[in-house]
Each structure stands twice: as C-alpha cells, then as structure tokens.
Amino acid sequence: MSASPLMGWDDIAAVAPDGLAVLDCVGRFVRLNPAAAALLRADTEGDLIGAPSPFTLVEGAAECRAGLLEVRSDEQVAHWKPARGPRREFAYRARSLPADPKFTVVSFRDVTDEWHRQRRIAAIARTSIALASEGSLGSTLDAVAQQIVQADGLAGVQILTLDSTGRELRLMGSAGLRHWDAFLDRLLECRDRGARLCMLDTLKERKPIVVPHRWAQILGDPAWEPLHAYLGELNWDSFVSVPLMARGRPEGVLNAYFAPGQEIGSRTLEFLAAMAEQAALAVDYATLLQREREGARRNERQRLARDLHDSIVQQVFSIGMQANAVGVLGARDKTVPAEAVRAFADEVGALSRTVLADLRAMVHELRPASSLRLGLEDAVTTLVKSTENRTGLSIRLECGHQVDTVEPELAEDMYRIVGEAIHNVVKHAEATTVTIRLAVHDHTLTAAIRDDGRGITESGGRRAAQENEDGEAATAGGHHGYGLRTMRERTERWGGTMRIRSGARSGTTVRVVIPLPVRVPESPPGSEGSGSIPSAVPLRDTENPARSGS
To answer: Average pLDDT over the chain, rounded to whole?
Structure first.
C-alpha cells in the first residue's frame, strides 16, 4: 500500500524556515513563500511579484575550501537593499525546475549578522598578523584602520597616538579618509574657535564615547568650518571615539566614522575596543623597540666618537706638528733647500688639517645631540659647512624662523634625514649644487633637498629611474636604496610622508612632510583624570552626549 502525503507542497513551503522563491528566465520573482517575503522586508508576497531579484541564475557555486581568515562556502552570496532598513546579505542555492527549465527555484537565508561576526573575527586575526610583521608603526596602524573599515563597512577610521609625555597627539593611521597634512592644524583651529573634541574626553574618561548624528551637528556649527569641506568628503553620520590603553595608561584614540543607517550597538563597541587594543599593543611595542634602538645607537655613537677622538684625531694632530717641525728644520739647515722643506711642510700641514676637519665632521655626524641643543638650523648649518669644505659642493640652506621650535627627538630624525640625503648626493648624484629648505608651516615640518645631479639610478648603472604611480623614484639595492629606506622609516615614525622626484636631466628632489603633534595642555590642579585634557576645552555633557565634539 502506497503512503499518501500528509499535506501538500504549498503547505510545506508556507512553514519552511528558509526563504523559497521561484524566478523567471530573467531573474524576476514569480512566487515567494512567507519566509522569503519576511527576509526581503516585504509586507506581502504580492509586493515583490515581477520585481527583479538579487540572485544570479547560476546553479550552485564552485565548492572551495575556506581559508583560516576567509569567509567562504559552497553557497552563493547576494546583497539586498530593502525599501526600509539596512542592506542584507543572503546565502543561497539555485536549481532549475526539471519540468520547466525556464523557471529557477532559489532557497536562501539571511547571513548578515553571522558573516559580520566572522569578518570581525577575521579582522582581529589579520591585525594580529600585521603586528608581527616588520612594518613601521604608521603602516601597521593603517592596516588596523583598513581592517575595521572592511569588516564593518564604516565610512572612515583614524588612529591618533600620544607621545611619551602624554601631551601630544599625532595622526598615525587612517582608512577611508584622504590623507591631508594640514588636518591636525585645522583641528586645532576648530578647537580654538570653540569646537568640542570628544576624543579628548575619551582620553580623560578612558572609555568609548558615542556621538549619534555627529556630522549634522558639525555641519551646523561654525566652529567646525575649517574642517567642513574635508569631513564632507565622507558619507558619514555618527561618531565613536575609543581609547587605546596599554599598561594602564592611554596611548591614543581610535576614531570611527559610521555611515548613515549604521547602528552602534554593544557588539560594535566590543569589536572597536578589541581593535583598539590591537592598535595599543602596536604602539606600545613600537615605543619599547624605539627606546631599545635609540639606546643602542646612542651607545654606539658615543663609543665611535670616543675612539675617533682618542686615537685617530690625536695621531693626525701629531702629523701636523711633525710637519711644522720639518718646516723649522728646513729654515735652519743651509744644506736643505728651505723652499722645498717649506713646501713639504705646507703640503703635509694642509693635508693633516683636511683630515682633521673630516674626522671632526664625522664626530659631529655621529654625535649631533650637542649641536641639536642649539637648534635644528644650527646643526644642519654645521653639517652643510663641513660637507662644502670636504667636497667642494655648493649647498644653499634656507630655514624658516620656527624650525628651531621642533622638539629635540624629531629634530634629530630630521637632521638624520637631511644628512642621508646629502650623503646620497655626494656619493651618487655627481651634482654641483644642492638646495635645502626647512620650514614649519600650517603646523607641519617640511624639508626639501634638491640637487642638479644625474638623478637616482639603478644599482651600478647610469639610467635614471622611472617614477612609479605615486611619483616616487624606484631604486634597486645597494647603500643608496638602504639609505632611502632609512629616511622613509624615520619619516613614517612621526606619521609623515616622503616623496622623491628624479630625472636624468632634472636631478632629484626629496620632499619630507611631517605633521607636528597636537599639544594637549594639562588640566587645572585638582581636576580628575589623567591630566591630559586642556582646561580650555569643554568636556562632554554627560546628560546630553550628542552635544560633545568629535
């Protein structure tokens, strides 16, 4: 006896938990079950009949093995933007009807939240991998910001770090926002005009601060006018600032700009806190590594300088004394031609003075700290003069009046960058003149070193290097490439950029741009918090968070 069905297939489709839809040959909805209408945010099945579906009319998808940090399956993925509510992601399978192949049956389910969580987990894992790679702090924090934007679809992310004193902020990582050297300077201008910066509140309170619909508030506030055009390039609405905490102290802030319609729930804040923790680890590791490297370099410079001064410099000085003695003997002894002795003495004396000057220049380059105490301009001026005396190269130096206000640590790195650029010119460019410009403008330290030489060449050759898409000269191997890499690392340490323009007939120009940090004045005595918040900046209104700044 054959078994009879308990109910019809229409009844089964009506209670199926997954969405079921029938599509015609061009992908339009012909029929849907109630679950499908609900997933597509439609009131009734009839609202979607005849409408184009988001599904591709391909049966199945090539089955592939998902990587550890990848979200893949044998299902296909479709994106659906309903008339109301945020965009949804559907995992689906499609099969043609055997009885009538021009129709396709699709079963689908909503995987928006599930895959969102998986992308967040993958972002955290990829960030951990980035922390273990050999990259600069700037590139690492850029990678962290990019992972956040990709995982949550945010409009943009910025990561700012505090210096060792806890009083200066630097923009070290970003994604989604155009790089703009004057951003911090304009931010300070907004603060001076009365704008509220809630990231300062974040540093003080050491907890995330959420500001709903912040872009509308900023757009309507004249104090934010210097940043209206820049922030208006983003399609964003709300704002979140999360502290970067390491060893119990704030290392900076992570600022997240949310696209319109994005909700900021507890899971979102949990994800941002996890990524901020990764960024804080990167900052803490870079700080410890930099201290170790600086200590090793300082000890090595002092040792080499001491050895040079105690041995070679004294020996060369002795040669000069001997040359003077020979000159005296030549003047007294009638059997020795006096002019010949004097000529010999003058030649040896001149040679010894030249060598002595070179060695002193080497000592100066190894230990610039003492001259840097007088200012960056004096240190570079001394370097320029010693290079001109040693090589005959004509060097023109132009310094702005605020150059000497740069903090000593940054000044030493800029001194090293300029010194390496001059070294490259002497060793490789075959130039006759060099122009060096140092200036502080719009809260930014800039340096430009331009020569009239043959341009950056391939290793061992004389062909001018081609410029890549970023306008940077491509080089190959050797000390020349190593020197450029060192210059770039010193620049990126401060969140700056380095660009190189080079041609066979136009020489080479190296331009370095380093945004100066935002100084955060201390709180007045007796105030709460870490002492990193300026008394002139109003704090967040705890009863009305929407009024706090970004």
So the answer is: 77
Q: What is the DSSP letter of 311?
A: I
Give the torsion sign (CA, 395, 425, 513, 383).
Answer: negative
Res 304: pLDDT: 61
Asked which of 28-37, 172-181, 217-226, 288-297 is least confident by mean pLDDT, the reply is 288-297
Question: Which tokens go with 286?
Answer: 């870079």
Distance CA 513, CA 440 (A): 10
Task: Enumerate residues 6+ apart whose C-beta is below 8 A from 420.
Answer: 483, 486, 487
- The better pLDDT of the pair 301, 65 is held by 301
The C-alpha atoms of residue 327 and residue 546 are separated, in whole angstroms, by 86
From CA 31, how far away is CA 97, in angstroms rounded? 13
**Residue 200 · residue 160 · CB < 8 Å:** no
pLDDT tens string 430-477: 899 999 999 998 889 999 999 998 887 544 333 334 334 344 444 434
> Are the CB atoms for 350 and 366 separated by under 8 Å?
no
Rounded CA separation 511/432 (Å): 19
Q: Are 88 and 79 in contact (CB under 8 A)?
A: yes
Residue 77 CA, chain-centre distance (Å), reads 33
DSSP 340: H
Which DSSP helix (H) or strand (E) runs through 330? helix 313-332
The torsion angles phi and psi of 48, rounded to 5 degrees, stand at -110, -10
